[in-house]
Amino acid sequence: MNCKSKWIIASVFLLSNLMVEPAFADGSMRCGTHIISSGERRGPDKYEVLKKCGEPTNRSGSTWTYEQSGGATRVVVFDHSGKVSRIN
Questions:
Q1: How far apart are CA 19 and CA 14, in angstroms?
Q2: Partner of 79 at 20 to 30 A CA spacing, among 1, 16, 68, 88?
Q3: Contact at 8 Å (CB) between 43 and 84?
Q4: Where are the domains of the chain?
């Protein structure tokens, strides 16, 4: 494989990652190597979120706040059954 082909493959890879990342911006969040998503039929519950993401920065009833690296803040809202209903 020549240098030009390697450069093209690397560029495609980087661009595809830039296109995928916004999917996490709405309704999902990354916790280490795990991805927590909202609105799934069998989505994660409070126990699973604690196990994968650790203790939140703040808990206010069914709303948990996580401070993530780079200064990002993610808010996880649970429904009446304890499942993730929304991630902002």
A1: 9
A2: 68
A3: yes
A4: 25-87
- 7-20 confidence digits (pLDDT tens): 666 665 554 444 44
String of DSSP letters for 32-86: TTEEEESS-TT--BHHHHHHHH-S-SEEETTEEEEE-GGG-EEEEEE-TTSBEEE
Two tokens, residue 75: 């808010």
Cα first-last separation, the chain: 43
List the one residue out of 33, 39, 34, 41 whose CA is nearest residue 78. Answer: 39
pLDDT in tens, 20-38: 444 444 589 999 899 999 8
The residue behind tokens 């990652």 is 17
